[in-house]
Amino acid sequence: MNKIRLLVVDDVPQTRKDIIRLLYFEDDMEVVGEAGNGIEALQKMNELMPDVVLMDINMPQMDGIKATERARQIYPDISVIIISIQGESEYLKKSMVAGARDYLVKPLTSEDMATAIRSVYKQQHLHSSQQNSIHQEIPTGNNPPITGSVNIETGYHKNPADSRDFSSTVYQSRQPSGQQMEEPLSGGLRMIQQQEKQLPHGSVPPANKVMQIPQPESKPLGLVTLVFCGKGGVGKTTLATNLAVVLAQNEKKKVALIDLDLQFGDIAVMLNLTDGKTISDMVRDQQALNSDTLTNYMLRHFTGIDILPAPLFPQDAEYVTTQHVGTILRLLKENYDYIIIDTASAFHDINLQALDFTDQILLVANRDLATIKNVKTSLNILDSLDLRDKIRLVLNRSDQDLGVEIADLEKGVELVVSHQIPSDERSVISAINKGVPVVLSSGSAEISKSFRRLGEKMVGGKRLPNQEKQGKALINRIFSL
Ligand SMILES: Nc1ncnc2c1ncn2[C@@H]1O[C@H](COP(=O)(O)OP(=O)(O)O)[C@@H](O)[C@H]1O
Ligand SMILES: [Mg+2]
Description:
By secondary structure, the protein is an alpha/beta fold. It has 2 domains: 4-212, Response regulator (Rossmann fold, 3-Layer(aba) Sandwich); 223-480, P-loop containing nucleotide triphosphate hydrolases (Rossmann fold). Helices cover 42% and strands 16% of the residues. It contains 19 helices and 16 strands. It has helices at 13-22, 38-48, 64-74, 91-98, 110-134, 166-172, 187-195, 236-251, 267-270, 279-285, 291-297, 322-335, 349-356, 369-384, 406-413, 425-434, 438-441, 446-457, 468-480; strands at 4-9, 29-35, 52-56, 79-85, 102-106, 149-151, 157-158, 210-212, 223-228, 255-260, 299-300, 306-308, 338-343, 360-365, 391-396, 417-421. The strands form 3 sheets. The protein has an 8-stranded mixed β-sheet, with helices on both faces. The longest helix is centred in the N-terminal third of the chain and has 25 residues, at 110-134. 46% of the residues are buried. The chain binds adenosine-5'-diphosphate (ADP) and magnesium ion. Magnesium ion is lined by residues 236-237, 261, 266, 342. Magnesium ion binds next to helix 8.
C-alpha cells in the first residue's frame, strides 16, 4: 500500500519535531519533508509532491494562509490542512477560502491528526480519479496543470468533481455521508461543525463569477521574460520596452508587454499611449477574463507590440489580484509568442505570482555598489524560490564606471553578465521626450544595437544562454591566472 506522503510546515523546529513524533506510529503515512515558512513550503511541494501538507498559520516571509492559497493554484492535487492554535479561530474562514481542506487546532492528538490526514487524502484521491475521467488537463507551461475553472475574485479552482468549495466541503462534506466520510470526525472537524453556523453564506463563490479557463491549443506557449531588480532606476522599464520592440521587429512574432509595476508603472508614459485602458480597467470591467478580453484591452502600439499598461492611479493597483495576474499571464502565454513583464522593485505577491509563469528572469544590474548589493540579495531570494536556473544577468549602463569592475561584479554575485547595454543619456532622453522606444528614435546608436543583439539571442523563442557554468569557468580562470 502506498503511504500518505506528508510535508510538515512550521517555523518552530520543535513543533515540527512534535508533529512528526505524533505521527510516528501511523503505518500508512510518512513525513517526507519539513519547511520553516510558506516560501520554503512551496519549494518543497514542487520538489517532493507530497499528498498532504500540515501547515502552520503564522510564519515569517510567507504565512500559511498565503502559502495555502498559492498551493491551491499551483498544486491543486496537494491537500493542505491548516494547523492553528486556540484563539485563532478567525483564521478558519480565511483558511477555507484559501483552499485548505481541513483545520486543526492545537494542542493536537495523534488520533486527531491521523484521522484528518486520512480523510483529506481519501477525498483528494477520490476527486482526482473522478477528475481524471471527466477533465482534460490544461498545460500551463512549466507549472503543473490546473484543471477546471477558476473564480475571478478568489482564484478558487472549481471542478465539478471537487468538493473543495464551501457548499460541499465546509458545509456538505462535513456531514458524514456515504463513502467520503467513513472516518469519525476529528477534533478539527468537530470544531468546524461548531463554528460553521457563524460563517457567512456569502462565502460561497457565486456561480456567475466563475470563469472558464480556455481549452488548450496545440500551439506552443509563449516565452515569458520577466525583467527584475530589487532596486528602482536601474533600467528595467527601458529594457523591457526596447526588448519587446526588437523581438516584434526581428521575427514578426506576436509580442505582449505587460506593466506589473502596478503602482508606479510608466510604460504607457514612455510609449505615449493615451488610450487610457489599463490592467485595472480590464479586471474591473470583466467578470470573465478570456482571449476576447485580451483583444479588447491590450493596446496596440504602432511598433506592433500589444501592451497592457499599469493603472493610471496607484490606488487602482489594489483591484488587481494575484489571481488576475495568473489568469492574464496564462492567457498571454496561449496567445503570444513572447511576453515581456516589467515589474516593481519588490518581492510581493504580484511578482511572486508572475514568477510562477516566468521562463527567464532578466536581472538588471548597474555598476554601483548599492545596486550590486541589491542584486545579490535578489539572487539569494530567487535562489530560495528555486529559480536560479532562470536568471540571466543584464548589465545596464555597462560602460559607466561607478566604482566596480565588471569582473568583480560577476565574482561578487557569482554570475556572468549575459548581456551588456551601454549608457546613452542623450538618446534615451530624446526617446522619452518623443514617446518612442530608443531603438526606433536612435536606431543606429550603440544602445539600440545592443538591444537588437539581445533580441537576436532570443530568436526562435529561446532563453538567453545560461551563463552560470561559463561564469564559474570564468571565475576559475581569474583565480588560476
Ligand atoms: N542605458 C541607459 N542609458 C541612459 N539612461 C538610461 C539607460 N537605461 C535607463 N536609463 C534612464 O534611467 C532612468 C531609469 O530607467 P528605468 O528604465 O525607468 O528604470 P527602472 O524601471 O528600473 O526604474 C530613466 O530616466 C531612463 O531613461
Ligand atoms: Mg520602471
